[in-house]
Amino acid sequence: MTGRLLRLVPPGTIPVGIGLAVVGLAAYVHLALAGHNLDAADYSSLSVLWSVVFTLGIGVFFPVEQEVARLVAARRTRGLPPGPVLARGAAVAAIVLGLLLLLTIGTADLLTDRLFDGDPTMVPALGGALAALAVAHTTRGVLSGLRRFGWYGTQLGLDGGLRIGLVAALAVTGVDSPVAYALVLVVAPLAAVALTAVPVARTIGRGPAVPWPPLIRGLTLLTISSLLAQVVVNVGVINVRLLDPTDVATAGALLSALVLVRIPLFVFGSMQAALLPGLSTAAATGDEPAFRALLRRSLAVVTALGALGGILAALLGPWLVRALFDTPDVLGHGDFAWLSVATLAYLWAMVLGQALLARDRHHAQALAWTVGVAALAVATLPPLPVALRVELGYTVGSVVAAAVMLALLRRRRTPPPAPPAAAPIPATTSGGAP
């Protein structure tokens, strides 16, 4: 039975899935130990930094990984070295990182006062965490494009393992500084990259340069979609501090709750590695029955995952966040129900977004996430309790994005796009907070 199951999954799914599992475990351990060692205000600051890092960082650097992987895979089929792709990808990542750091420095006082409870040392920690993500995602793109999924999973596993070890050391020694727990997000990914640098370094080689225009065009659309998707899933914690800066308890409790209800996103992360290539192949060959069948199966899987996870979260969530993260008792069963419904809708949007990309409709995916973020903003406006406002925003934003994608997907476009040269691209959008 095990051998048959392994033959059903594409190469690379198992090592990537193991790596993602370790990263997911690290997220829980990181936040749980921080929650038990920091006071409410400091844990709230760490929660906001976490949300900013994995909204901005994943939103802008995961598309670099995707595009680098796609281009490396295309050159690999022609026997060309991936060095020029790595150079272009690193240049793009460096430029984007530079812009983010300039923005961070320019708004340091505002960030300190509004998001970090007056602690200015959290700002450089934020910049360092963004830099670490830039390096990690660029190198993972090379490993993915070369189909070196063993090394890819190893880098994820090392990142997660180092986070667990470092946070455990902080907890055992009684460290109660939020900056120390934030710096783990800097040290662990950079160390993991260094320890898996050999296969990436071997890719350096001469060859035809990668043209800038198609690279920038593809990255722009992917970045818009990715960043907006991260806003929908992560902005709630930030909104709590913006809507009510004095409510430090809800911000920390909400992040802990989101970590629990988004467990199905980790499972989808492994599945996504095979989803886009499968859909792309069916779309490119005009095999509409196969396309629809794979799409239906994928939606059925994420629906089952989301429903099961949602039921467990709604029943056990309030107790789990108190037991695991030592968070204040401010969220009830209804809060977890809302968050679970939102996560299920978000999973639908992720699957439907892959279907749009497979049909070369990057603009449609970006439009859907734009409408979803606008709906989130509108849903957050009514004068309701802060927690309910952000929960409604997450739910409405996810549902609207999925609905728009479904409507756009039904609008068939002919002729079918040319076959893309894509490798299975592991999804690490939940590399920090699931």
Provide structural commentary.
This protein has 434 residues and is mainly α. The protein has one domain. Helix content is 80%, strand content 0%. Helix 14 (333-358) runs parallel beside helix 16. The longest helix is centred in the first third of the chain and has 38 residues, at 40-77. It starts with a helix and ends in a 24-residue tail after the last helix. Mean pLDDT is 84; it is low at 1-10 and 414-434.
In brief:
The chain is built from 16 helices and no strands.
Give a topology summary.
Blueprint: H1 2-8, H2 13-37, H3 40-77, H4 83-106, H5 108-114, H6 122-145, H7 149-172, H8 178-195, H9 197-201, H10 212-243, H11 248-261, H12 263-284, H13 288-325, H14 333-358, H15 362-379, H16 386-410
